[in-house]
Amino acid sequence: MATYTGVPYQDLRWQEVEGQPFGIGAGYNGLILGDLNNIIDTEGAIAAAGSITSNRGMSVAFGRQGQPAIPYDPFAVRFLAGGNVNIAGALTVVGNVVTGGSVFQAGPGSTYLIGKSDNPDQSAELAALYAADGSPYWAPSDNGSHYVISSYDTPRYIPAARLSANVPTFFEAARQSLACRMENIAALAANGTVDWQNSGAVLTGSDSRQNVFDVSWPADGSLTGPLSIQTPAGSLNIVRIYSGDGLTITNGIWGSMEQANRTLYVLMDAKTVNMQVATAIYGSVLAPFTGWNANPSGGNINGNAALGSLSVPEGSGFELHWYPFVGGMTGLGECTAQPEPPTNPETPEQPDVPESPECTCCNGIISGIMLPCGHCQWRLKLQLLSSRQVLSVWQGCGMGQFSFEVDPQQDYLLVVETCCHYEVRLQQMGVRSLTVRG
User: Taking the complete model, does pTM exceed 0.85, yes or no?
Assistant: First the structure.
């Protein structure tokens, strides 16, 4: 998880991960279950169920300064919005940008860097994914180690519907999973001590694997010293914070950089957080039902942040830094994300197109003729049946032939995208099995 961020666009769904309270959301530096406002930089990927707005630009998934950059990836979604996107400045992302909203605005110069796959038609696939009205001749540019998606003519993004991705279901499953994890963590037995001294607190634990602490946050703002954690090297630190509805942060340091990826702060009952100082929080924050209000001068969360909402004042330097929680927690129990909703009965999935009786077998080749009703455009996506990974794309207009070179020992799915009735007439099918769907 330290080198991988985001989720692949071919399989944009929630998944549980054993020992990891953030589930598949551990791939996101920020997992926001509401709106995200005005943040300027997240070193890892960002996902927000609501709208994402900013009066400035936004930089996403470029990694930590002085540390290895997050690698290019051909499929990872590293900017995911459930609602509308309005960003006044440039949006720069190392990865794909997907939104389920109806409005997407980003400033001139917005750029996404997409890693290369072994698919020879990847450029055409990206061009189709990021296609925009009024810009028919645009294409991704090849920058050697990666492709560049530039919004020089119109804002570009991948509509979730173009991927058949159910973004609301993804976030609702995340909400249910994180609520379950909060209950799991509430049931853990505390085995560490909290010593209040010098206007701060020292958390001490001796368990070599996992130490759990209960901190009663003072409402009077008297906590101005650091939260210090003293536990065996390599152990997990689980800090449950009880504050009542409102938590006010008046101290500058939580934990230490050395322990950041093994420390988890859980806001057990806070509905809102207000940062009165630009605090450096070393560790991940699990607060999926808490509205977080950042300090006007800055501050940062160094880890995963699962929050109800995140509001950053205009001009604030508050950031999310990428020290992902390592997982490996014990006592989390079972949590099951909700399944995908059934297909609307009014728009049933089209049945498989039967294979032509003339179809012959030439090992390693899938070929045929696309017969649309009229002179309309169509696109064929060849995917691995097991993973739904897109391997190749063939496009045309009106009647036309297609051909794919493949591994004859694999099972494949051929997805047909067109706005009119059609027939796929297979000529060669030199693979173990092929399913055709519209």
Answer: no
